[in-house]
Specification:
mainly alpha, 8 helices
């Protein structure tokens, strides 16, 4: 078919370009831009098939049609870059928020654990103080301290601890307190009376 190739086609390159453009116009519009980049081989196969059939009529044999590069419009490229930029910024913001969330959660867990350990330590400390005071008071006797007396001992302990903390704090304001621990029994009586009044039947219905 050399005669056909020489005399039927006035411009071989222009004819091949038209066939390639026809395949590209029919295949690429059905793809997204990302798909077009990912499926260059599919476009290459479609171009080769088209050229093999059409150019075979003129004696040309197409061995391979390669799509070496795809060049979108400059505005499309700019839009793609902006989309990728915003996506990465969003991912970075999500990761930063997750990191801040983990920090807050861990800080809250640490604070809760510290408060729990502090409470357990204070409870053991006051328990030991009360046991020591009870043993020192009832040592050598058969006397048993009542719950009321134990509560007063605990209040006395807290009373002196409060005075100690106020004295140790350099930023403490002036505080007026009873000058002796004897007033603690009055405080204990007020607390007990308040508990009894709160537990009265009439108070429970309110």
């Amino acid at each position: 078919k050399a005669v056909d190739a020489m005399y039927k086609l006035s411009d071989v390159h222009a004819q091949i370009d038209s066939y390639v453009a026809d395949v590209v116009r029919s295949a690429v519009p059905h793809m997204t831009l990302d798909d077009a980049f990912e499926k260059k081989d599919d476009v290459s196969v479609a171009v080769q098939q088209k050229l093999t059939v059409e150019m075979g009529h003129y004696g040309f044999q197409i061995h391979k049609a390669l799509v070496t590069e795809m060049v979108p419009n400059a505005e499309v490229v700019q839009s793609m870059n902006e989309i990728n930029k915003q996506k990465r910024l969003r991912d970075a913001a999500i990761m930063a928020a997750e990191g801040d969330k983990i920090k807050v959660v861990k800080a809250a867990e640490a604070s809760a654990d510290a408060a729990q350990l502090q409470g357990e330590g204070i409870a053991r400390q006051r328990g030991a103080i009360i046991d020591g005071l009870r043993d020192s008071i009832t040592h050598g006797t058969n006397e048993q301290l009542s719950t009321e007396k134990i509560s007063e001992l605990l209040l006395i302990t807290q009373y002196f601890e409060t005075l100690r903390d106020i004295a140790a704090n350099s930023k403490a304001s002036t505080v007026f307190l009873p000058h002796s621990a004897g007033a603690v029994s009055d405080v204990a009586s007020q607390i007990r009376n308040g508990i009894m009044q709160a537990g009265a039947p009439g108070q429970q219905r309110m």
